[in-house]
Amino acid sequence: MDDCIFCKIANGGVPAKVAYRDERVVAIEDVNPRAPSHVLVMPIRHYGTIADLADAGDAALMTRLIEIATRVGRERGGKHGFRLVVNTGPYGGQTVDHLHVHVLAGRPMSWPPG
Ligand code: 5GP
Ligand code: ZN
């Protein structure tokens, strides 16, 4: 998508600190971290939301996103653990309409979220 900031980042047109990349998935450091470690794991191909990816039926990509997010969470959180978040749609608090999994680690997280 031409006007999507995460498409531009995923395709290298806009710089970001890349934590991981393979042929289908990229992980970047969040520009406005909400925890000592805050990484965004996203598909390189544009999907607006996780519901759009579910509709597309690409189970391998869905699995890959969670696998990579879990790997990053383990690396960053160690024995203390981590949190995965997928904000979806306006009530879900999504502000960038390109599917991404937040990986938050490095401090205790509160519950419930705001
Ligand atoms: P959302 O609110 O959609 O769940 O999360 C969007 C996240 O993307 C926010 O945590 C925000 O800080 C991050 N973000 C927005 N624009 C950029 C950017 O240009 N570069 C990076 N690295 N992160 C961004
Ligand atoms: Zn996009």
Describe the structure.
With 114 residues, the protein is an alpha+beta fold. It has a single domain (5-105), classed as HIT family, subunit A, CATH 3.30.428. Helices cover 28% and strands 21% of the residues. It has helices spanning 5-10, 50-56, 59-77; strands at residues 18-21, 25-29, 37-43, 83-85, 101-105. The chain has a 5-stranded antiparallel beta sheet, with helices on one face.
Helices and strands in order:
Elements: H1 5-10, E1 18-21, E2 25-29, E3 37-43, H2 50-56, H3 59-77, E4 83-85, E5 101-105
Antiparallel strand pairs: 1-2, 2-3, 3-5, 4-5
The chain binds guanosine-5'-monophosphate (5GP) and zinc ion.
Annotated CATH homologous superfamily: HIT-like
Q: From the 3D coordinates, which CATH architecture would you assign?
A: 2-Layer Sandwich
Portion of residues in beta strands equals: 15-25%
Low confidence ranges: none
Number of strands: 5
- Give Rg in angstroms: 13 Å
Task: State the end-to-end distance.
Answer: 30 Å
Q: What is the top-level CATH class? A: Alpha Beta
Total count of helical runs of at least 4 residues: 3
What tags apply to this protein structure?
alpha+beta, 28% helix, binds zinc ion
Explain briefly what this protein structure is:
By secondary structure, this protein is α+β, with helices and mostly antiparallel strands.
